[in-house]
Each structure stands twice: as structure tokens, then as C-alpha cells.
Amino acid sequence: MASANNTTQNENASITPKKSSKSSKDHTYDLDWIRNTNAKPFLSDSSHVLKKPITDHGCQKRLSKYNGVVNRMTSDQVNDELQKRQLSTNGEIEIRRLRLKHYYKAQLTFGCENPFQMIEQHFEYIAVVDFEATCNHNQGNNYPHEIIEFPIVLINVQQRMIVDKFQSYCRPTINPILSNFCTELTGIEQHQVDSAPTFPEVLRNAETWLNERHLLSSNKRKCGFATDGPWDFAKFLRMQCGFSSISYPRWAKKWINVRKEFSSFYAVQRCGISKMLQSLGLVFDGRNHSGLDDSINIARITIELMKDGCVLLLNDGIRAADPKFIDLNSVSHELQNLNEDETKHNDNLVILDR
Length: 354
Prior knowledge:
alpha/beta; nuclease; elongated; disordered N terminus; Transcription Termination Factor Rho, Rna-binding Domain, Chain A, Domain 1; 12 helices; nucleic acid binding; Nucleotidyltransferase, domain 5; Exonuclease domain-containing protein
């Protein structure tokens, strides 16, 4: 994703202490839309059992004792315990420790020897999106970012694998000539956007592709959309719909913020795609800031989360009551705060106490 003023800083930037965020209960979402689509299971009264803390006092004591034992294990001891449970031994030591702790919590919750097999994900499919947009080296805060690449990578949740892809370039109309900075960053050449349809047609094509697979039908296959952070939908898609004078798509009002979920599940500070992969013992596959390659790598992270017992729910979205949602060209103070997650100066993964 080609971001506003921080595109070249994302992966090698510093990880600052986690900031407290307001509860989603304070937000006003489009509840009618949620009730009438495949997002219905994610209303506040339908949280998955593993998203809740263990309340039984005896189980709490056992879990606390086990977590203390895991914290004192050496790397080899952690790997031995993971192998006994047929779990992955990839990743940094703290990620592997958390993998063991999540397994034991699931074991206490479900009362069986293979608890991860008992986890029921709410989505049948997850569609990962990572836009690329026009940008310039010396752009200001009000630079008109136009989407120039629209990829979708589809995950079959049960199979835990990528099963399909959509990708299209988009022809920008406000700044039709790509800057050298944009081409170098994204790898997108001028001739690729010159021969591409404009965004409204690409959006129609993307929705046709989704509908052909019954992914937007509320009474068929359940599909959740996922991005790396809030910017793709809350900023770039909002902005582009304003430029194109078209309605913001309902399916993009609420999504899985993979970066946010990764941070919460593994108790680490939020970080970019490459750092998340590195902490899982993986390497980036493809070219950074290629929309399709970024989407594939976000999908790989998403699959690893599910393998480690993470239940993926819609955890981010656009607030329907936000007056700035009407002015799609504005860059809200909220988005500027969210962009602070990208301005980092250290590549170390900070582990939080858990």
C-alpha cells in the first residue's frame, strides 16, 4: 500500500509502546447493514469463547502456572513442547511461547487433547485487499491519492490456503502521469495504468468477481475482508469513491485489521508486513508495495494466525455516524493518528507482558 507521507519508513520503522484504544462499544457502526449481511455473527452478543478470558478460578490458576513455566523454558524446550503437540516451531522465541500458551488455554477451554481442531472460525472465506495508490516524494497532507492497483487474495478458511486471486490496475484521472517515486515504489509502469479502466469500472469488475463466487451474498458463503491496518478502506477507498462520485461499497464498511489482530493475539507492538512475517519465521515473497504481492503476504500472515488458534473477527470499520465519512476527500484527525503506527524508527519486535 502506497501511503501518504511514510511509504519508505514502514518496514524499518520504530515500534513505540502500545497505546490504549477506545472500545468499539463507543463507536456507532451501521448495525442495519451488519444484521443484513454476512457480518451478522459479529454483533456484540456473539463473541467466540476463545475471545473471552477464562473465568473459572481453578483454570485461571492452572493457566497462570503453565504460563510461568513456559516463560522459563529455553528455546529448545519450547520447541520440544511444540513438537509434542504437532505445532509449528517457526518464529521468534516469544511468538513460539505464545503459541504454546494459546494451545494450553484452548485445551482448558475445550477439555480435549487437540483443541485447535475444535475452533470454529466464523468466516468460510477471507478476502485480503491491499491497494496501491498514486504518490509523490514531496506530497503534502492533502495529496489526492488515487487507487492504481486493486488486488484481492481469497483464503479458504477451512483449508487454510489461498485459493483464488483478482487483480486489476486502475487509470488515475486527477494525476494521470505517475511520478518516478510512485513507479519506483510500487513497480507499476505508466503503460499499465494508461491501458487500464478507471476505478468505477474496476470496482464493478471486482464486485462481479466476488458475486460469481457468492462472496457478497448474505445467505450463502460467509466472507470477511481483511487489510493490513485501517488505511486501505478507511482512507484510500473512501478518498477514491469521493473522487469518482460513487457510493462507498457496503462490504468495505467493516473488516479484519490483520495488523491489529496480530498485535493483540501475539502481544506485540503493531508492525509492518515484513516484520510480522519475520517474527513468524517467514520471509516476504515477491516485491514490497506490489498490491498483489502485499495481499499474498498478508494472507500468509492471516493463515498463520488461524493455525495458531486465532479466531478472526471483524475488528475495524468506518463509523457511520462520523460526519467526516460524508466528506470523502477529507483526511480526518483520526486517520492522521492511525498513521502514527507507520512512523517507526526501530526494527525490533517489542513483546508485551502477558
